[in-house]
Amino acid sequence: MRDYTTHYGPVSKCLHWCIAGLVLALFGLGLWMVQLDYYHTWYHQGPALHISGGLLLLLLTLLQLAWRQATPAPTPLASHPHWMQRMALWVKRTLHLLLLALLLTGYLMTTAEGQAARFFDWPLIPSIAKLNGAAVDWLGSLHLWGAWLLIALVAGHAGAALFHHFVHKDATLRRILPFGQLHSDPKHDPKHSSNNSVQKRKAR
């Protein structure tokens, strides 16, 4: 379940791709729903689904951050120079900060009239502040432009992974693909470590 020195484990992969898919889906839904007129069937359903998806995204993001604290990330590839490793790290940090900022602005807009943020029909997070129309409009602008900036960073992140895969031909992309298979270092393989511990206890 944990990450290996050479590639990400199943938990990290699942969280990564679920978050990526949800971000793209919410971005598309958000752009579409703001163009709907009042009499459209999805005028109310669209925002409700967007809010529920945002709350799910918040949960997955917090789980991902907690998981990263609990298990070290794979060792950077030896072929990557130091500046490239630092850039990749800061891109990931910026993606998380932008994501959290979007979730915060979305939450503040959703609860601006004092109502709780609802996960489908379940009131999940209560309001912490009532806001006037001007504040909601300002938050809406931040939310929109932040979403575009996030998508631009996601596109750059994905483009860099594809560049490494097809041009550099290294394992950058394969180590995070859902079904990517790489040989792990036995010394850092959780399964190997567990079996090794059992063998040592038997030897005693």
Automatic annotation (TrEMBL):
Annotated spans, Disordered: 182-204
Chain ranges passing through the membrane: 14-35, 47-67, 88-109, 145-167
Membrane topology: Multi-pass membrane protein
Cytochrome b561 bacterial/Ni-hydrogenase domain ranges (all copies): 7-178
Keyword Cell membrane: yes
Cofactor: heme b
GO molecular function: electron transfer activity; heme binding; metal ion binding
UniProt cross-references to InterPro entries, sorted A to Z: Cyt_b561_bac/Ni-Hgenase (IPR011577), Cytochrome_b561_oxidase (IPR052168), Di-haem_cyt_TM (IPR016174)
Subcellular locations according to the entry: Cell membrane
Keyword list, A-Z: Cell membrane, Electron transport, Heme, Iron, Membrane, Metal-binding, Transmembrane, Transmembrane helix, Transport
GO cellular component, one term: plasma membrane
Name by which UniProt lists this protein: Cytochrome b561
